[in-house]
Amino acid sequence: MKKRLLLTYATRPLGIRVANLMAPDFEVLAATAEDIPSVFIDKYIPCPAVQSASYVHEMLTLALDHHVAYILPLGLKEIAALGRSMALFEEYGIQVLCPDMEILPSLSILSNPPKALPLHLMANGKDLLEQGLAGPSISNGLGVFSDSGEEFLLTAIQD
User: Fold this and answer.
1) How far apart are CA 121 and CA 131, in angstroms?
2) For residue 128, what pLDDT is reported?
3) Is 72 within 8 Å of 97 (Cβ atoms)?
4) Angstrom distances, CA of residue 44 to CA of 40, 85, 114, 122
5) What is the count of structural domains for the chain?
6) Shortest CA distance to 68 belongs to which of 59, 56, 78, 76?
7) Rounded distance, CA 105 to CA 41, Å?
8) pLDDT (tens digit, 9 = 90+) per residue, 8-50?
């Protein structure tokens, strides 16, 4: 049985690309805080806006209601908000796939990587998309590695 992954900003081009990339290995639940056209209402799950005072708790409720194993926030503000609360999610067996808050300010951000660049979804230092180990530079998050493999560029939507 595939593990469930809640993906935010799923209506954006990056979200669609990531959802398609992950579909073979995960049951991807596409979520968005943006308005959903009525023709797509069955395809997307509404999620709270990051500006909400109760954003973290609403995301936890959403994740528990849908029995997800992972949350992949694509928005930079979502990454910051959920990253500060990773321990709360871990108490419920949910892993938030974003970098540790200590290293987030030092990471370069790539908002829309070219399709020619392979994306890497890191969880505890392991690439969930390639099923291989990567360098020690990043433990969690979506991004691309530099040509040398020494630098990780975080892929996020500048929200």
Assistant:
1) 10
2) 87
3) yes
4) 7, 24, 25, 24
5) 1
6) 59
7) 36
8) 999 999 999 999 999 999 999 999 999 888 888 889 999 999 9
Pairing of strands 126-127, 132-133: antiparallel
CA 70 – CA 105 distance, rounded (Å) = 23
User: What tokens were used for 102?
Assistant: 């200590």
Structure tokens at 2: 């595939």
- Whole-angstrom Cα distance, residue 31 to residue 43? 9
pLDDT beneath 50: ranges in the chain: none
Which CATH number fits the domain that encloses residue 135? 3.40.50.20
Structural domain of 93: 3-155
The token duo for 151 is 């630098």
Long-range contacts of 58-63 (CB under 8 A, 24+ apart): 60/88, 60/89, 60/92, 60/94, 62/6, 62/31, 63/6, 63/89, 63/92, 63/94
